[in-house]
UniProtKB/TrEMBL annotation:
Domain DJ-1/PfpI stretches: 1-171
Organism: Streptomyces spiralis
InterPro entries per UniProt: C56_PfpI-like, Class_I_gatase-like, DJ-1/PfpI
Domain of life: Bacteria
Protein name according to UniProt: Peptidase C56 PfpI
Lineage, highest ranks first: Bacteria, Bacillati, Actinomycetota, Actinomycetes, Kitasatosporales
Record-linked SUPFAM superfamilies: Class I glutamine amidotransferase-like
UniProt feature coiled coil, ranges: none
Family to which the UniProt record says this protein belongs: Belongs to the peptidase C56 family.
PROSITE patterns from the UniProt entry: PEPTIDASE_C56_PFPI
Length: 181
């Protein structure tokens, strides 16, 4: 299985690292798809620099056909920038339209809302974006560490990572795995 991780500067390190590690441990290949070439700057608690990750591909050059599933890590800056980028929003929209699994944590659902992909869905997130998600038509659940609604898996934040990683591996493993284009 090949998984795209849509992320840019400001990504919350632990939300990218732990999920990528869980997927790779289950045999998946991962690629960081980003807004720019080179390295993306990770953060810890949005405030502290937490190293970098090399971007494997530009989102402008990426296709949903290249991946079986999509991860949307959080942090505040990362998804805020992604939801403002036309190519990133198109990429998310294409995953949703294709019925492929999408997993998002913390502030990560912002690009899903921008892609008009939360309407009628049940999900969870970091508390500060729940009103945004409700306004975009989602049914927001505050008291569950992981919510699965069809192809979408969401979680509240870093404290929920153990349960979230397990749910993501399980849901992604259920997805069809024909070789992407």
């Amino acid at each position: 299985m090949r998984v795209g991780i849509l992320a840019t500067d400001g990504v919350e390190r632990v939300e990218l690292d732990q999920r990528r590690g869980a997927l790779q441990g289950a045999g998946a290949r991962t690629e960081i798809v980003s807004l720019h070439h080179g390295e993306i700057q990770a953060r810890q608690f949005d405030l502290n620099a937490a190293g970098t990750f090399p971007a494997d591909r530009l989102v402008a050059d990426a296709s949903v056909d290249d991946y079986h599933a999509l991860l949307l890590p959080g942090g505040t800056m990362n998804p805020d920038q992604l939801r403002m980028d036309r190519d990133a929003v198109r990429f998310v929209k294409d995953f949703m339209a294709g019925g492929k699994p999408v997993a998002s944590i913390c502030h990560g659902p912002w690009p899903l809302a921008e892609a008009d992909a939360v309407r009628g869905r049940r999900l969870t997130s970091w508390p500060s974006i729940r009103t945004d998600l409700r306004n975009a038509g989602a049914e927001v659940v505050a008291d569950q560490e992981v919510v699965v609604d069809g192809q979408v898996v969401t979680s509240r934040g870093p404290a929920d990572l153990p349960a979230f990683c397990a749910a993501v591996v399980e849901q992604f493993a259920r997805a069809p795995h024909p070789m992407p284009g």
